[in-house]
Automatic annotation (TrEMBL):
<dbReference type="InterPro" id="IPR038499">
    <property type="entry name" value="BRO1_sf"/>
</dbReference>
<keyword id="KW-0967">Endosome</keyword>
<feature type="domain" description="BRO1">
    <location>
        <begin position="27"/>
        <end position="359"/>
    </location>
</feature>
<feature type="region of interest" description="Disordered">
    <location>
        <begin position="665"/>
        <end position="707"/>
    </location>
</feature>
<feature type="compositionally biased region" description="Pro residues">
    <location>
        <begin position="679"/>
        <end position="692"/>
    </location>
</feature>
<feature type="region of interest" description="Disordered">
    <location>
        <begin position="720"/>
        <end position="742"/>
    </location>
</feature>
<dbReference type="InterPro" id="IPR025304">
    <property type="entry name" value="ALIX_V_dom"/>
</dbReference>
<dbReference type="Pfam" id="PF13949">
    <property type="entry name" value="ALIX_LYPXL_bnd"/>
</dbReference>
<keyword id="KW-0963">Cytoplasm</keyword>
<keyword id="KW-0175">Coiled coil</keyword>
<feature type="coiled-coil region">
    <location>
        <begin position="414"/>
        <end position="444"/>
    </location>
</feature>
<dbReference type="GO" id="GO:0045022">
    <property type="term" value="P:early endosome to late endosome transport"/>
</dbReference>
<dbReference type="GO" id="GO:0032456">
    <property type="term" value="P:endocytic recycling"/>
</dbReference>
<dbReference type="InterPro" id="IPR004328">
    <property type="entry name" value="BRO1_dom"/>
</dbReference>
<dbReference type="GO" id="GO:0005768">
    <property type="term" value="C:endosome"/>
</dbReference>
<dbReference type="Pfam" id="PF03097">
    <property type="entry name" value="BRO1"/>
</dbReference>
<feature type="compositionally biased region" description="Low complexity">
    <location>
        <begin position="727"/>
        <end position="742"/>
    </location>
</feature>
Amino acid sequence: MEAVPRMPMIWLDLKEAGEFAFNAAVKKSAVSVPRDFEGCSTLRKYLGQLHFLQSRIPMGSGQDAAVPVTWTEIFSGKTVTHEDIKYEQACVLYNLGALHSMLGAMDKRVSEECAAGAFTYLREHFPHSYSVDMSHQILSLNINLMLGQAQECLLEKSMLDNRKSFLVARISAQVVDYYKEACRALENSETVSLLGKIQKDWKKLVQMKIYYFAAVAHLHMGKQAEEQQKFGERVIYFQSALDKLNEAIKLAKGQPETVQEALRFTMDVIGGKYNSAKKDNDFIYHEAVPALDTLQSVKGAPLVKALPVNPTDPAVTGPDIFAKLVPMAAHEASSLYSEEKAKLLRDVMAKIEAKNEVLDQFMDSMQLDPETVDNLDMYNHIPSVLMEKCAALSVRPDTVRNLVQSMQVLSGVFTDVEASLKEIRDLLEEDEAQEQKLQELLGRVPPAPESPLGLAEVSKECSKYLELHEKASFTNTELHRAMNLHLGNLRLLGGPLEQVRAALPTPSLSEDDKQVLQNLKRILAKVQEMRDQRMSLEQQLREMIQKDDITTSLVTTDRSEMKKLFEEQLKKYDQLKVYLEQNLAAQENVLKALTDANVKYAAVRKALAEVEHKWNTTVQTLVASYEAYEDLMKKSQEGKDFYTDLEGKAAKLLERARAACQASEAHRQQLLERELKKQPPPRPTAPKPPLQKKPLDEAGGPEAELGSLVLSELPEELRSIPPELLPGPLAQLPPQALAALA
């Protein structure tokens, strides 16, 4: 993209320290650190010195020199006290990660990997029972949030550096993967109960980011297709990006203005790309647009990692202030054993994560949710949103009648206006025709009247009103169409609930179909059972490793026997490892059974999906009709007001038109009379024979003779004048005489 809009990031609060019988000056400097990188350095030094102290003096839980350590729990605000120096270390480590998250959320966009490293070390090396804000579930959530935000920072830099489109797409896809893991943790029931209100805010932001960065990934896949001149693929990727961005916009409701600006900017970019690509393909390239699921999915590229924490690194901790207190041999041996335990945990977790990744990808591809795999219950009742609309209409029984009456009144006023404007137009056209006849008769343009007659102004205003009427006519037609569209639905919503329920589609499943559904749900339950057992075994292994302290044994063991002691101690994990291996091995069979069940479910799924789509469409249509009622009433009233005003203006204009046309007609008569006066007197002619009277029943009659006589008396120049334009008494001749003149 031409620029890189930024999304806000989540940062964590620091824990507050309470009682700890340690040097007051040291304690103060460690718990009241500045919110900057100097503060991070101070926390690391303090953590290291605590580690050195704990390795020499028995200050752990249940040991002789243990003293109370008090910290405030983040979410509840309660103080939690343990007589264990490792609790002090765990809280300091938590604050180190929280402070890095705070710094990472700032404009410099750094430090997220450090935060992830601190929380990872805390999760793997300390008990999770100290306080709820340091439970395994919360720490896993924090780690995935930090890794996601670190990958997001890398994505911003990659786009600013104009890296290759495919690489940017993979980086963005990995952001989506990290946030999906964070979202799963946020949806965990334990997490929901612990986080409270903040869980909803975080979940909403994370879900919005999932769709947003999925849109960014498909945007860059579309750009890669463009570079490869795969114009059909380009269209479907840009369309998918647009769809995902629209989902992100829906989820962004309530987010700050900076988020809205970023979404609007991205919409401009993706919308422009899609419109251009579709137009080019429709009119130039004519490539077939493939379905999105036929294209290779974008595999994320994890380019960030949790930076490891080494509490005994002298470059970080500084000199060991307890170096002369006790020998380090036992501590060194314990550290070696801790590394063996960590290695065992890493090996097991690598297998678990590999299987989990396969399982997650498989389930994502299946798109099977155990909770909604069959949604037959929803067809047994009217949805609450429709019940609300029915209830609202039940107390307003005249809704449909009022709407129809309002539209009828509007139609009446519309017709009146149209009739007035038509009459004005006819008057003007007739006047123009008469003026044209006069011009042809005189052989020149007749002189204008001495004073303006107002016909030009009338014509101008008539054109303006006709234009307004024509525009309003389209709106009026659309309004009537909308009314006809919603009228039936409003009648349905205002009727008995049984009719509403009958109007909603319902699925019809055979017994075989129901059996297929039950089998699929049973296997999905097996998948969940396998997941839960795996998580439980993993938790047991972690807790067992955390509690495994052989320091006492190491003090009495010769250095040469250390390796053997380690091997014997590590055997205690064999049984758990066997259970985990069995669980992991069962996954292949479970997924095979799920694949077979899903094949049989395909036809049922399609039928259910079609019915659900029709059901949702029907509900949405009925709701839309209800919501359109007030708008229709408002617009019909506005239409009535508009046409009432226009009717008054048209009526006044009609009166003016009539008066102007009458004045114009009088002016033409005056011109004709003047023309007649200008003609020379008739030349003498021979006496005419007396008129022979004809019977009245003969053709023409006396009126026709009179017309012939008058015509013979007219000058030759005026004999072609249309009778209706003759001046004075000639115009009053009987119709038969006028016919003879014509």
